[in-house]
Design brief:
Layout lengths: L29 H15 L1 H12 L5 H28 L31 H19 L9 H24 L4 H4 L8 H19 L16 H20 L7 H28 L6 H15 L8 H17 L3 H5 L7 H19 L2 H4 L16 H29 L10 H6 L1 H5 L8 H8 L12 E3 L2 E3 L1
Antiparallel strand pairs: 1-2
Helix pairs in contact: 1-4, 1-8, 2-3, 2-4, 2-8, 3-4, 3-5, 4-5, 4-7, 5-7, 5-15, 7-13, 7-15, 8-9, 8-10, 9-10, 9-11, 10-11, 10-13, 11-13, 13-15
Protein name: Ammonium transporter
InterPro entries: Ammonium/urea_transptr (IPR029020), Ammonium_transpt (IPR001905), Ammonium_transpt_CS (IPR018047), NH4_transpt_AmtB-like_dom (IPR024041)
Subcellular location: Cell membrane; Membrane
Length: about 475
């Protein structure tokens, strides 16, 4: 067996490529970082997948804005990550709560062994973790559904990644983080990704207020089911890399994590469809099946590398059923969070974290040859309490800090978080995009078959709260 490379403080970049072969230290373990690079490419597909999902769920007059935002979010988040996001999260001299600026501007981040795994060059690890951050921010902006102003939303994305995501990821995955050392068990982001994004999206919707002139009955249907299905398919596929690569090596545990991910998504579909079938007296919903798949993916994220396949099936099913039964949670909370980010990611993430504490198994965690973890199934009941501590800490921090950040932005002169009422009525697309491009919506409507013809490319005229040709 080849010895793992060792990090040398005196050469933080891993060596001078003009003087030595910096690749030599990874001879014999190349398959590990090749696998993680492949997983990174797969994870990237989640971002346009979320854009397609959100676009399909929205009314057609705001569909382009959500697609456009997918690319803008990944662009802004990438800048934030290479500017200081990576350093604030994974700096080796981090405190238990936040990293330092030791790696500001990716200084020293190149071919040295990464803080996550000695078998990975740090630049590979950095890229993989960047995509986690980008996916999370993209989930959060769903809270601004159909009423958030584009530029303030992008500024919020940069700030939110800095003051919410980076500290939470540091708590959870940095070896100095307090949740890491508690330890709470979070394989691939149940806390920093899902619980945080769910509560933050709820905060976004709360601060913006309810949409105006919305017909709740007619809006129960998405404007384009085809886009919802396609977006879900990309998210499902991307999640195989999201969870499958979180071992940070190409071990048996990684393969099991991918298997568990697919299994939980499948049982998530079955759980949600079953609830719909009973609730609607023998009728099905394609959108419901898509929501079930996402609920299953969310639930298994913290547990994928800690549980057996059958327990992954249980986690996906239970998470999906609970989320489906909370269909009216927005009405209960009196918050217009139309994308159901809180229901699917917030509640789903909390369920997944709790069930991880119950079902985590030492024999599964050890499949990568290095990880030690026990859960309630091994007789470690204390772990359930530690999982609840993670849930409470991340929920409170993400909601409160997001609200504070949004209120600060809201009261900055010229920083209008919410569009004007007339813009909201006409639609974000007509207000924020070049007129000649509005006809692009015809493609969306034609694909979905859920709207009357828009093939002539003319945008709908809004009269009151109703759209007419």
């Amino acid at each position: 067996m080849t010895d793992a490379p060792v990090y040398n403080v005196s050469t933080p970049t891993g060596g001078d490529p003009l003087k030595v072969d910096v690749n030599a230290q990874y001879v014999g373990v190349e398959w590990n970082y090749t696998y993680i690079i492949l997983c990174s490419f797969i994870v990237w597909l989640i971002i346009p997948g979320i854009g397609l999902l959100y676009s399909g769920l929205a009314r057609r007059k705001s569909a382009l804005a959500l697609l456009f935002q997918a690319f803008m979010v990944v662009a802004v988040t990438t800048f934030q990550w290479i500017f200081w996001g990576y350093s604030l999260t994974y700096a080796r001299d981090a405190s238990p709560f936040i990293g330092t600026l030791k790696n500001f501007g990716l200084r020293g981040v190149m071919v040295a062994p990464s803080p996550g795994s000695a078998d990975l060059p740090e630049i590979v690890f950095c890229f993989y973790q960047l995509l986690f951050c980008a996916c999370t921010v993209m989930i959060v902006v769903g809270g601004a559904f159909e009423r958030g102003n584009m530029i303030p939303s992008l500024i919020f994305s940069f700030c939110w990644a800095t003051v919410v995501y980076c500290p939470l990821a540091c708590w959870t995955w940095n070896s100095n983080g307090w949740l890491y050392n508690l330890p709470s068990l979070d394989f691939a982001g149940g806390g920093p990704v899902h619980i945080a994004s769910g509560w933050s999206a709820l905060a976004y919707a709360f601060v913006l207020g309810k949409r105006r002139n919305i017909d709740r009955t007619s809006h129960a249907k998405p404007h384009n089911t085809t886009l919802v299905f396609l977006g879900t398919a990309l998210i499902w596929f991307g999640w195989l890399g999201f969870n499958g690569g979180s071992t940070l090596n190409a071990s048996v545990r990684a393969m099991l994590a991918a298997f568990n991910t697919n299994t939980a998504a499948c049982t998530g579909v079955l759980g949600w469809v079953l609830v719909d079938y009973i609730k609607h007296r023998g009728k099905f919903s394609v959108v419901g099946a898509c929501e079930g798949a996402i609920a299953g993916l969310v639930g298994i994220t913290p547990a994928a590398g800690f549980v057996s396949v059958w327990l992954a099936a249980v986690i996906g099913f239970l998470t999906s059923v609970i989320c489906a039964l909370l269909q009216d949670i927005n009405e209960w909370l009196h918050i217009d969070e139309g994308m159901d980010v809180f229901k699917l990611h917030g509640i789903g993430g909390m369920m997944g974290a709790f069930l991880t504490g119950i079902f985590a198994s030492q024999s599964i965690a050890a499949l990568d040859g290095v990880t030690e973890a026990t859960g309630g199934i091994d007789g470690n009941g204390v772990q359930i309490g530690k999982q609840l501590a993670e849930v409470c800490a991340i929920s409170a921090y993400s909601f409160v800090v997001s609200c504070i950040l949004l209120y600060i932005l809201k009261f900055i002169p010229g920083m209008q978080l919410r569009v004007h009422e007339e813009v909201e009525m006409v639609g974000l697309d007509r207000a924020q995009f070049i007129d000649e491009q509005i006809g692009e919506r015809a493609l969306f409507d034609d694909l979905g078959g859920s709207s009357s013809s828009m093939l002539d490319g003319r945008a709908p005229v809004v009269v009151g709260s109703q759209e007419k040709k």
